[in-house]
Design a protein that fits this description.
By secondary structure, the protein is α+β, with helices and mostly antiparallel strands. The protein is built from 10 helices and 20 strands. The strands form 3 sheets. A 9-stranded mixed beta sheet has the order 3-1-2-4-9-8-7-6-5. Strands 10, 11, 12, 13, 14, 17, 18, 19 and 20 form a 9-stranded mixed beta sheet that branches.
């Protein structure tokens, strides 16, 4: 059965996905649930996503051992991927998202002077904060604390920035078992799923320990049992932030007031440390974080750059330029989080920091 979904991201990016593959539709909904709309006119669409079986045949194309390129289309049969990121609308034929959906959105946003950023963004006591960071630093943990204290969410993983302003991009939360102890999750289905994941992961760790001697001496058995362990282990469950925090948890688009770059550091200190950071340095770091998020698709994108007028280096430069402009308009801070600090202490200290400085024009820096 054909599944057709239209999404409109703040009037900046309009997407249509047509697929018979349920897993593709599910992933799209996790990304764009908040932006689903009724079917729009074809002429207004910026990104079309189809199944690979519908891709065009490329006549007289440039052929390598793995790819065929013609008329701005790159076809990689082994990956079941065919794409055109040059002509409007962008068009992708695939059976799975070899090129991340967020990258496709980013290409269109950059044409309009906007960019995604890998960051949590929150409204708290009338001020809008951006918290860029690598994955695993604690953006979701921070977001839950701020929302629990009356704040609102722009996004906990990605948000849209341009000219000192924030636009919401509330992806589904990726919840891990440890979130049971730091989030107020009231939905029994979500709680049950996380407890199931926790139990499966315990079984996977036990199975790994029991089979370690066998895997150590037999490479083929090692590969087989490692696949079994990965199959047993489950990492996370995706949940809409509205399901966790309620329908009023999403912020309204608005001006950015402060950037707080988060990083974890090796330290036995019991306190977070806050210092200023140069806006251009931070823009470079955040642009690199974006590319790190897309690392699995980089070889394909660079191959496309080598065959076409599409420039991945140009994408990086545009991202950095948007970040430099945005960060240059506000104060930028670097919050260092000791790796020994538990989640609750981390939450309480950042809430205290935001509470102390929510209404201040120029907050003092904390030092270690």
């Amino acid at each position: 059965m054909m599944i057709v979904k239209d999404f409109n991201i703040h009037g900046l990016v309009r997407i249509r996905m047509e697929t018979t593959i349920k897993s593709k539709a599910d992933i799209a909904m996790r990304h764009f649930r908040h932006f689903e709309v009724d079917r729009a006119a074809d002429a207004s669409i910026d990104i079309f996503i189809h199944d690979y079986c519908e891709c065009p045949s490329l006549e007289n194309g440039t052929v390598t051992s793995e790819t065929c390129y013609a008329d701005n289309y790159l076809n990689i049969a082994d990956e079941k991927l065919c794409l055109n990121l040059i002509d409007a609308p962008l068009t992708v034929y695939c059976n799975r998202y070899v090129i991340p959906l967020k990258f496709l959105v980013e290409v269109v946003l950059l044409k309009r002077g906007y960019s995604l950023i890998h960051s949590a963004a929150l409204e708290y006591r009338g001020r809008n904060y951006l918290f860029p960071a690598f994955g695993g630093v604690g953006k979701t943990v921070l977001a839950s604390a701020v929302i629990g204290d009356g704040g609102k969410l722009f996004g906990d993983d990605m948000v849209i920035v341009s000219q000192g302003c924030l636009s919401t991009f509330p992806l589904d939360f990726s919840l891990y078992p440890y979130h049971l102890h730091v989030l107020k999750i009231e939905d029994p289905k979500v709680t049950k799923s996380l407890r199931r994941i926790e139990a499966l992961n315990r079984c996977a760790r036990l199975f790994s320990c029991m089979t370690a001697p066998l895997r150590r001496y037999d490479p083929r058995m090692d590969r087989l049992l490692s696949m079994v362990i990965r199959f047993i282990a489950t990492r996370f469950v995706s949940v809409s932030p509205v399901t966790i925090f309620g329908s009023n948890c999403i912020a309204q688009n608005g001006p950015l007031h402060r950037v707080c770059y988060l990083s974890k550091v090796q330290s036995t200190s019991s306190q977070i440390m806050v210092e200023t950071i140069d806006a251009e340095d931070l823009a470079e770091r955040c642009a690199n974080i974006m590319f790190q998020e897309w690392y699995q698709s980089m070889s394909i994108l660079y191959r496309y750059s080598g065959l076409s007028t599409f420039s991945l280096n140009g994408v990086f430069a545009q991202i950095r330029e948007v970040f430099q402009d945005t960060f240059g308009r506000v104060e930028c801070l670097h919050i260092r989080i000791p790796n020994t600090l538990d989640h609750r202490a981390y939450q309480s200290q950042l809430i205290a920091y935001l509470s102390d400085h929510a209404s201040a024009d120029m907050p003092p820096c904390w030092a270690s």
